[in-house]
């Protein structure tokens, strides 16, 4: 995932005279991962307790690990559920991505993800085609209806998993909280999903290094961002080998099998972290050519794709991605 590159002008004495407001940092654990916030203000106006409180509210809505969350209730028995504001926004955007991607992005794929060993239990043999087909009967967002804040499923076996978009949404909510406190420059990172606003110093954008799929090192691409969100996702993470084949955790909701293509990682830049988070799932499921063509059609969405061509890694960029790359 993405890691922040802390190249601060405060390490250069010549820049001290031009430094903006003091920098404050908050670090913590949430949603099964870690978060890091840095913001600039005249004083410490945001606390860790406040950030943790914001994230706890989101967990009560969409955490699969919370037995009392709304999403857990829906997955267990509820055929009809009244959603809160958070889950309503995420599910609504999920429908947008589902339609835009012709069903590639699908929040009902959870039973297939578990079947292929990416849930609580690892598998030791390939699932039978008959088993996959039986599960596909209750996979598909066409089996869900969202009417205002009421979510209905046509089959009680339908289960939803919002992890492919909810973490990005959480970053956006924290950013909105900082906005409400009057913070004009900040970086919010949660589980590799990042959103920045303003500058880390006078007219100096935040700098983000992109992790390469080659041995977990950083690629040569460093981004300079302001007022944007970015995330990187890769098929080299959350994988295991089974019967001589590499199994990826991205499952095709249409045929029930793990996606097999030559895409190693995608980095998505978008106005919101929710969109960056959601779109990276879509681009990972496409060929590099399809992904670049889609990004060039979309407004305010840019992508950088690292893919494998035989034994070499190659790169592909959407038309406007280069404007974010730092010139060495």
UniProtKB/TrEMBL annotation:
It catalyses: L-threonyl-[protein] + FAD = FMN-L-threonyl-[protein] + AMP + H(+). Its EC number is 2.7.1.180. Gene3D superfamilies: ApbE-like domains (3.10.520.10). The keyword Magnesium applies. Keywords: FAD, Flavoprotein, Magnesium, Metal-binding, Transferase. GO terms for molecular function: transferase activity. InterPro entries: ApbE (IPR024932), ApbE-like_sf (IPR003374). The keyword Transferase applies. Its cofactor is Mg(2+). Belongs to the ApbE family. This is FAD:protein FMN transferase. The lineage of its organism: Bacteria, Pseudomonadati, Bacteroidota, Sphingobacteriia, Sphingobacteriales.
């Amino acid at each position: 995932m993405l890691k922040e590159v802390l190249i601060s002008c405060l390490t250069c004495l010549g820049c001290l005279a031009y430094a903006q407001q003091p920098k404050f940092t908050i670090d913590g654990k949430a949603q099964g991962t870690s978060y890091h916030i840095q913001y600039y203000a005249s004083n410490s106006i945001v606390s860790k307790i406040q950030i943790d409180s914001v994230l706890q509210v989101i967990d009560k809505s969409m955490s699969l690990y919370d037995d009392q969350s709304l999403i857990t209730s829906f997955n267990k028995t509820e055929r009809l559920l009244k959603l809160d504001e958070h889950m309503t926004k995420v599910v609504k955007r999920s429908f947008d991505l589902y339609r835009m991607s012709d069903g590639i992005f699908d929040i009902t794929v959870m039973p297939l993800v578990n079947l292929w060993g990416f849930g609580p239990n690892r598998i030791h043999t390939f699932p039978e085609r008959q088993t996959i087909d039986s599960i596909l009967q209750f996979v598909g967002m066409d089996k869900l209806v969202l009417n205002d804040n009421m979510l209905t499923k046509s089959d009680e076996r339908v289960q939803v998993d919002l992890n492919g978009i909810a973490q990005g949404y959480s970053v956006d909510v924290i950013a909105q909280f900082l906005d409400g406190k009057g913070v004009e420059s900040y970086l919010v990172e949660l589980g590799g999903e990042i959103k920045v606003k303003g500058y880390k110093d006078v007219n100096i954008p935040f700098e983000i290094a992109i992790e390469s799929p080659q041995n977990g090192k950083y690629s040569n691409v460093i981004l300079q961002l302001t007022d944007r969100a970015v995330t990187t996702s890769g098929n080299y993470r959350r994988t295991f080998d089974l019967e001589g084949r590499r199994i990826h955790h991205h499952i095709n909701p249409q045929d029930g099998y793990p996606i097999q293509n030559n895409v190693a990682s995608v980095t998505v830049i978008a106005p919101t972290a929710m969109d960056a988070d959601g779109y990276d799932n879509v681009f990972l499921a496409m060929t590099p050519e399809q992904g670049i063509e889609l990004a060039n059609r979309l407004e305010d969405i840019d992508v950088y794709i690292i893919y494998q061509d035989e034994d070499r890694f190659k790169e592909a960029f959407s038309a406007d991605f280069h404007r974010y790359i730092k010139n060495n």
